[in-house]
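REVIEWER CHECKLIST
Item 1: Sequence provided? yes
Item 2: Single chain? yes
Item 3: Sequence as submitted:
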Amino acid sequence: MQAIVAVDENWAIGSKGSLLVRIPADQKMFRQETTGKVVILGRKTLDTFPAGQPLKNRTNIILSRDRSLTVEGATVVHSVEELLEAIKEYDADTVYNIGGESVYKLLLPYCDTVHVTKIDHAYEADAYFPNLDADDAWEVTEESDEQVYFDLTYHFVKYERKK
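Item 4: Structure as written out by the authors:
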């Protein structure tokens, strides 16, 4: 399984149920990485999508404790065990954890690769991704040149779990 996330310099990912910032090149990279693949997300993340609908051209799996939740166009699972069973039929490299905070933390132990857009700015935030730079289990295997969007600089960084 892989994860894909945009973080600020404090590994923050969101504030009040929204992304910290929308960077078109980051959104394009997200689409390129996940289109035609499987995305795993929580219900709160689903609520942030246009009209609260699953992402198009992807297999959407919603992880939620709410046993009454049904989402048209998506599979809903209620535990990690149920999720792992649901993704068995897919190649692990085609399965992406796309958040939010609790789903990232819950599934990070199952991820081997994390695609991080690191934004060189600190935002006011209330949701965070685990700091992979402070975790000896992870190493940077690729990093883009510095990117710029208006006055923001950022990098695309690939982390892989050490073997």
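Item 5: Key structural point noted by reviewer: The chain has one domain: 2-161.
Item 6: Recommendation: ____
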